[in-house]
Every structure is written in C-alpha cells, then in structure tokens.
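User: Here's a chain of 103 residues. Predict its fold as tokens.
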Amino acid sequence: HSNSLVSGSLYFSPLPEPPARVIFDKHLMYQRLELNPEPEKQNIFNTPVNIVTPKQGDLLLFPSEVNHMVETNQSSDDRWAIAFNCFVEGVLGNYRDVSELKL
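Assistant: Prediction complete.
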C-alpha cells in the first residue's frame, strides 16, 4: 500500500467457520541472511512469519510495509470486515532544511 503508514482490518461481524487467518510475512523483497532464533525462543517480535486468527470485534493494526494476506474463505458464509490504509496529510519536513513535503 504505497505511501500508507498504517493498515488495518476491523472484524465487526461474526466470522464464518473456519475463520480465515491473517498472515504477516516480514520477509523483504531481496534475499538476505536470516538469523532466526531457536524455536523455543521465538515470539511475535522475532519471527519472520506470524499468523493471527481474528475474532468478531478484533481490530488489527500493522505497518503498511509488512507483507500480509488473508486465507481463502473456506465457508459458504460471507466474511465481512472493513480494511483500511492511513495516510498523512499536511506539511512534513522543513523548508529551511530543503526537506519540506506538502501532502
């Protein structure tokens, strides 16, 4: 989501069974050496992939640059959520520093 700072999804209605999970993949687009922690020391902050199973009423917020996807809805019931991206508006930077950006 180009130029978005924060993305999110609001799960405001009951979810079908099985609920589709949201997958966050912190891998970058280029190849790099990965130094992942030992499995017993992994947590949501130091692993390259995290999976969230949303529930009704959940609001997921995440940096827009994180790769993310939602599993296919395997139910015949509709899945409803509000997904969004947040952008900044106004003036960023400083005219005197030649870094001013008007949005």
